[in-house]
């Protein structure tokens, strides 16, 4: 058993190093090369593999084995955030390093650690002859960091995947997430009149107008969201981006703002936008020279502990680690949101701590990957079985 675990540890570490060596940082989240790499691996194992590209350079992998129901789809995103200032890293972020029990590199936690686990799992399923019943699919997607339409959303739109069970490789530290908030992104634009900063009274300051709108929006939305809490989750709003002005000595005639609104699973994205628009319209400053629009949004999802996949992952966790699995809430959102209106089982499960993601010197505990791989392999064997068993 020691030898087998050491081999698994080495396999996962080496695979993660390979995945990290590809620069898939957003923008633009380009995945052509890494997708070809994954394509070759899974094709050689006997999977039917296809590449799907809705926008040039944003390539998604779908690998399938078996047929019929249940259809289990694994999903992990292979795009990452940018590395930030390279000098803040202890090493090249695309050259992974192992230090004691951890492996560090850009995307190690979010979400290439899950990518390495799922590639290993795909190989194991193939070695055992494939599923005895049903179908298993592995999807490696891009455009997740952009909350964009060219990754998992595109695969669902063209029906490249039709899951009965969807397992998202989010960094949950091998805990389970069965419900998740939705997300809504909103844009506000204000306009004004340019003038020399030496005579600002001759102009109309678009940034000042935006500040007054923001103060009104924050004050009134805070009243509405204060009591919206459920199962440890909160309904939130955050002003995340603001742009305006051309030079310090010019009265700005344009300002643009982006807002992030997180929705409880029972909240609806369209109703949430209409609520925000009503508050926006109630601000005297916004009645002229200001506009609001929805950029994009998806509802959250809420599952049950009675789900088949939840039961089998929980059983496998107990058998391998000796204690009960924990159920947690997510800070972020996963691509599971695109299936929120479908009657399917959705869970997030994967190695690594979410707090390590999107950080300088991002790292993942190798044992977390090892445990994740063994738990998922046992769970699939319980649900689908293997032809060679």
Overall mean pLDDT stands at 95
Structural category: alpha+beta
Low-pLDDT runs: none
* Overall morphology: globular
Number of helices, counting only DSSP H or I runs of 4 residues or more: 8
Helix-strand pattern, N to C?
A: HEHEEEEEEHEHEEEEHEEEEEHEEHEEH
How many DSSP E strands? 21
Rounded radius of gyration (Å): 23 Å
Please give a structural write-up.
It is a single chain. 32% of the residues lie in helices and 27% in strands. It has 389 residues and is α+β, with helices and mostly antiparallel strands. Helix 1 crosses helix 3, helix 3 packs across helix 8 and helix 7 packs across helix 8. It starts with a helix and ends in a 6-residue tail after the last helix. The mean pLDDT is 95.
Write the layout of secondary structure elements.
Elements lengths: L1 H19 L4 E2 L5 H13 L3 E8 L2 E10 L3 E7 L2 E2 L15 E3 L2 E3 L3 H20 L6 E8 L10 H6 L7 E4 L10 E2 L1 E10 L3 E2 L9 H20 L3 E2 L2 E2 L1 E9 L5 E2 L2 E10 L5 H13 L8 E9 L2 E2 L5 H14 L23 E4 L14 E3 H18 L6
Parallel strand pairs: 1-5, 4-8, 4-9, 9-20
Antiparallel strand pairs: 2-3, 3-8, 6-7, 7-21, 10-19, 11-17, 11-18, 12-16, 13-14, 15-17
Helix pairs in contact: 1-3, 1-8, 3-8, 7-8
Entry summary:
This protein has 389 residues and is α+β, with helices and mostly antiparallel strands. 32% of the residues lie in helices and 27% in strands.
Features:
389 residues; alpha+beta; six-stranded mixed sheet; four-stranded antiparallel sheet; globular
